[in-house]
Amino acid sequence: MWEQLQQWDRSLFIYLNSLGIEEYDAFWIFVTKIEHWTPLYILFFILFFIVYTRRKAFIGVGSTLVVFAVTLGLTEIVKNTVGRLRPNNNTELAELIRVLQTPGNFSFFSGHAAVSFAMTTFIVLALRSRFKWVYVFYIWPLLFIMSRILVGVHYPGDILVGALVGTTIGFFFWKYLGKQALQKA
To answer: Is Cytoplasm a UniProt keyword of this protein (predicted)?
Structure first.
């Protein structure tokens, strides 16, 4: 069963990765770099100050940073425990895939997916009562995860699990930390 799932994951990755078009490579490389999303992070934090009092806004920003740190820490622990090679480091795939980046660490599960979905879920839950359009922020993690396949560094299973873990962490922190803290502060 496990072998079959890995084969499907690998086949789906090869197919999705092959959909990349050379003219868009620069776009996907840009999208996949975390530092290029800094203006969005700043917008998130500004929105906390629009919605909440100054003290609550600082709690919201701090909580978002805790969500980020916890998700990143858990991701690194799991990656180093599981030790799944990234597609770009798998010699069996070298002739079959397009590789635009070559990170050396492990693949399972995607930190980009986990962190972006965790932060987005937490922020959407914190801001949805004021801004009904806030769900549009999910475009960020969707673009982010697509980039990871198109640059050749994550299997779809890595992305799916990362997104589920991230969404769960974002929801958990909102329910058990953020919601109460932002209401009480």
So the answer is: no
